[in-house]
Amino acid sequence: MFLGFLLLLPAHSLAEKNDNALIPLGQSIGVQLKLEKPTFVHDVLINDKWWFKSGDQVISLNEKTIGSIADWKKLSKNVNEEQVSIEILRENKRKSVLVSTDKLESMLPFIRDHTEGIGTITYVDPKTKEYGALGHQIVDQQISQPPPFLGGTIFLSEIARIHKSTPGNPGYKIAKQAAVHVQAGNVKQNTVYGVFGELLESDMQQGDAIPTLTARNIKKGSAELFTAIDGNDVQAYDIEIIKVEETTFQFIVTDQELIKKTGGILQGMSGSPIIQNGKFAGAITHMVVDNPVKGAAIPIQEMMKKHP
């Protein structure tokens, strides 16, 4: 699972031009990334001298390439030897170790070939159909790093329940996939500025494109946060922008209905668009754990760069 959360600006404003207009979204999405190689997500003791470590990537089993959990299962069933050779990649170095055949199945629960979680889709470009989501990089919490991946998929999801935030205890959205195995888009990039790809689901592209703001044109004062906390019904909630910097801005939630239902900001709200005076200001990236009505956001034109 992954949390959501933060983050320059060109000297000249790119904003307030029609060719920078984006459609703000705010729906909850599930994200699934196919890992570059099957990866250990926990340390596993093999013998008195050897551990597989969290983050180790599996290259081969008995010199046969492993590209997925299915490959591991298939090859391990056809092993006749008492021991097999497993080759891994650890910190960009290849290592091989002999493992008892009877341990192959017991290691499976500690290996994954994908990572997944939920977040919020921020915008779609009406001309290119390219979307941006989350406003920050996906970091696999079990291996504590951005996962190398071959590709990915986003799915429309529905919020089934809310676990409220309280000071010191971040709340979260509990979601279910709205349409099983129906792809809403692909994932092409996972950067510090968010997840990006091409949106395929036309129902998510409804709405009018609005101009985008540079950080210097975002002002302290009232604004609106667009997000879904019930099903996938996107609603606008009042916030107050309290500080604007070059690469980020801070805000507090002032909408009493949202505070009553969620306690403020939730994990899974990352990427929720923020609109000020009818223009696209940015997207949520962080919450303050000890004060969940306070959060931080990335300016939308910073996010649109996709890379620092």
UniProtKB/TrEMBL annotation:
It holds the Pfam family Peptidase_S55. This is Stage IV sporulation protein B. InterPro entries: Peptidase_S55. Residues 88-308 form the Peptidase S55 domain.
